[in-house]
Every structure is written in C-alpha cells, then in structure tokens.
Specification:
The chain has helices spanning 17-20, 62-65, 119-126, 129-139, 149-154, 162-200, 283-289, 334-340, 344-351, 364-369, 378-416, 424-433; strands spanning 13-16, 21-25, 34-35, 39-41, 47-48, 51-52, 58-60, 79-82, 90-92, 106-111, 156-159, 219-220, 227-228, 231-235, 240-245, 253-254, 260-262, 267-268, 271-272, 279-281, 297-301, 309-311, 317-319, 323-328, 354-355, 361-362, 371-375. Helix 6 runs antiparallel to helix 11. Among the domains are: 13-159, Adenine-n6-DNA-methyltransferase TaqI, Chain A, domain 2, CATH 3.90.220.20; 231-375, DNA methylase specificity domains (Adenine-n6-DNA-methyltransferase TaqI, Chain A, domain 2, Alpha-Beta Complex). It is globular, with a radius of gyration of 28 Å. The protein has 12 helices and 27 strands. The strands form 10 sheets. Strands 2-10-8-9 form a 4-stranded antiparallel sheet. The protein has a 4-stranded antiparallel sheet with strand order 15-24-21-22. Helices cover 34% and strands 21% of the residues.
C-alpha cells in the first residue's frame, strides 16, 4: 500500500480506479441550448436525499439529447456525483428518473465488473476518507477545487473480496436508511411545530384545551390583526423589567478563567455555545462588566445575524455588544416570550427596523417597541409554552438520534472500509448455518 491509501488486509486488492470503475464527466451544456421541454439534465439542485429531483431539472431538445449528447444519457444504477461547488452529493439513478442527462459539475460512476466491484459499494468509497484524502492531496493550493477525470485517473481503490464488499454495503445502507428516516421525521416535526406556532401564537387555547377559532370564540381587532378577546397586544418593553445589551468596549482577556466573553454568534437553539475560539476575561474584568441575569432572562443577537436566541442558565459570561438581554417580568411566562421571539411575524416587524447596509443591526429601541400579542391569563401562557416546549424537545431528541446515527456511520466506514473490522466472520457464520 502507499501513503495515499494506508494499510489494508493482505487479501484486499489495491487498484487504480479506471481498472474497475467507469466514470464520465458531464458536457457543460450552455444556456443557449436550454428549452422549456425535452430531455431533462441534472444540476446541483437536483440532488435531494440520495435521489434526483426531476422537478429541479432543466431541459434540452429531444434532437440534441438523442443526438450530440446521447452518450451522456444516464442509465439505471448509475451513481451521479456533484463534482464542483458543493462537492460530494451522491444520488442513484432509477428507471423512473430516465431519460436523464449529465451536465457540467456532475460525474457518473458505475462498476465495470460486478465480480470485482459491487455497484452498491461505489457510493461508500466516494464518501470514504480514502477518496477524499487522495483528492485533497491532488488539489492542494488550487484556487478552484473540483473533482475531475484527471484526478480520478490517478486515484486508487482498496477492494475487499466481493462478498465482503456486498456485506459492507448492506450494513452501511441500513444506517443510511435510518438516517433518511430520521431526517424525514425531523422535517415532519418542524412542519408540525411551524403549524402549531401559527395556531397557538395567534389563536391560543380555550379553557377546554381547544384551539380557538372565530367561528366558536370571540375575537377582537388589534394592531396585529384579530386576536382572542382574552389576549392583549403589549410592547416587549411592557412585558419585561429590562432590555439591554452587552459591553461596547474590549475587555482584558485571560487564559482559562472560565468567564467567557460571548456575542450574538455564541447563541442558538436555546443555549449559549462556547467554542474553541471563545475568549475569556479575567476575574476583575468580569466583576467590572457583570450584568445580573437570572433564569427569566433571554439572550438575543442584535448584530450581524439577527435573532440567534438562548436562555440564560447561570453561565459565567460577559456579554458583548451584539448580544442583548431580555429580563421578563414575573407575571409573564419567559418561555412563551422565547417562542414568540422566534415567530415569523416578529421577524417581519424587525425587517422594518434593521439598520446598517453591510452588517445589520437591531436597535434596543426597536426591540423595546416590538408589539407582542399574548394571553392575559398566566395559566394559558404556561399551557402554550409547555405545548411548544414539547415540540422543541421532540425535535431535539430526533436531532440527537440523527447525530448518533451519523457518528455511527462515520465510525463504521472507518472500520469496515479499511479492514480494521472484518465482516468475514459474519459471512462464515452464515455459510455454516446454511
């Protein structure tokens, strides 16, 4: 083995890609050849969850597609690969996708000999560390990074015996399906949350736990449209004890004190995110710039990326100027305000209040003046907050599951595609059982 591919089991082959793999780059169809109908061709937008979305395709005429570009027509079981811009998106071609053409920035792959290279193994090689490192070493220093036939001609593929390839591909495909199902579940939960927020934050819940409607409940006019008579529209300032931002000076930094200097980019998904780039301030500076916060405090980014949000959870932090703090009154459910501040109507209001041409800023005055529609009764506020909290929790659990599945796949690929862990024993057990 060589320095590009590392060490592999003695019964594996190390072959140049052209020995076992057919690959072809798309032709680069120019816009003057596009038509409104005809034969579709793929682009980067067409790659969706391992399939080709034909609704995103553009077309060339039947005459060109079946003539000059006929040899770029894809076949069933071709793997297509995005090779420029966003590199590494992969999709398998099915019969219902055809007819379909390659185009620029895409490459197709298929095995030249199923007895040496299983077609379903190709995908995992293209996702593997071995493929990526060979490409990176060839393109170091390049201004425009892409994958092309010139690179592929020089690459090698480490191949286990064909039965082992098939078993490896089966195991990894099972993980892929679990990932796809979890992603679909998250997308569904996000849609449910969006619809629920729309209903709960505009109509609320009656005493029987039902979402109100104007057909069955009394509504009234307000500056934010029709709202239940049990609700009011108040400014964010009226619902809080204080709204402010962090320091506008640069503090003295220190090593590993634990007092983190955070800005708006440290906020997101309800939490403060500390990264390796987050700086610390010394204890004296912390005391100098300390702002008393509590568990009713929401942190909100007001500079650059507007709307990153987090709950303060007693972290030892100094706020920078792009992080605002919102301290809710005891009579107001802070978790409900947290959800309201993420709602689309609030964001639309902010659009009119943003200043700055390159880097956007949301002023504290604009925040304080933000109109909020909210139930008067604390019981309804609590109920709405709990319903939305549950949605957030379920999405978080699904995201945790997705993260674990992706980590599992990464580890399995590293083990199985290098031979560090063999599936040979499993194959032998199946043979003995038969």
């Amino acid at each position: 083995m060589n320095e590009l591919t590392g060490q592999f089991p003695a019964d594996w082959e190390l072959l140049r890609l052209p020995e076992v793999l057919f690959f072809q780059e798309g032709p680069g169809i120019t816009s003057d050849k596009f038509t409104k109908e005809g034969i579709p061709f793929i682009n980067i937008r067409c790659f969706v969850n391992g399939r080709i979305d034909r609704s995103s395709c553009q077309f060339i005429s039947q005459k060109l597609g079946n003539g000059e570009y006929k040899h770029f027509q894809l076949d069933v079981n071709d793997w297509v690969f995005s090779s420029s811009g966003t590199i590494g998106k992969i999709a398998l071609i099915f019969d219902e996708d055809l007819p379909l053409l390659l185009n620029t920035s895409t490459i197709r792959f298929r095995t030249q000999d199923e007895k040496r290279l299983a077609n379903n193994y190709i995908k995992f090689f293209l996702e593997s560390f071995h493929f990526k490192i060979q490409h990176q070493l060839q393109t170091q220093g390049s201004a425009q990074v892409n994958v092309g036939p010139t690179h592929l001609q020089k690459m090698h593929i480490p191949l286990p015996p064909i039965k082992e390839q098939t078993q490896i591909a089966t195991i990894l495909s099972t993980i892929d399906r679990a990932i796809e199902q979890t992603e679909a579940l998250i997308a569904k939960q996000q849609r449910i949350k969006t619809g629920l927020m729309q209903d709960l934050l505009t109509k609320g819940i009656d005493e029987n736990g039902n979402i109100r409607s104007e057909e069955t409940h009394e509504f009234k006019d307000s500056p934010l449209g029709r709202i239940p008579v049990e609700w009011e529209v108040e400014s964010l300032d009226e619902l809080t004890t204080k709204i402010g931002d962090g320091i506008h000076t640069t503090p003295a930094y220190s090593e590993n004190t634990g007092f983190f200097f955070i800005n708006g980019n440290n906020l997101g998904d309800g939490s403060i995110h500390i990264t390796s780039d987050t700086l610390c301030v010394n204890q004296g500076e912390f005391r100098k710039y300390y702002i008393e916060l509590d568990d009713r405090t929401i942190l909100y980014s007001i500079n650059g990326t507007i709307g990153n949000i987090a709950f303060y959870k007693n972290e030892p932090v100094v706020l920078g100027k792009s992080a605002a703090y919102i301290k809710c009154k005891k009579s107001v459910n802070a978790r409900l305000i947290y959800h309201i501040l993420q709602s689309e109507p609030v964001h639309r209001f902010y659009d009119y209040e943003l200043t700055g041409s390159t880097i956007k800023n949301l002023s504290l005055a604009a925040m304080r003046a933000t109109p909020i529609k909210i139930p008067r009764m604390q019981e309804e506020q609590e109920f709405l907050a709990c319903r939305l909290d549950l949605c957030v929790y379920e999405i978080g659990q699904a995201n945790n599951c997705l993260s674990k599945l992706r980590s599992l796949k990464t580890g399995l690929m590293q083990d199985l595609l290098t031979g560090k862990v063999r599936v040979t024993d499993l194959l032998n057990q199946k043979t003995a059982a038969n």
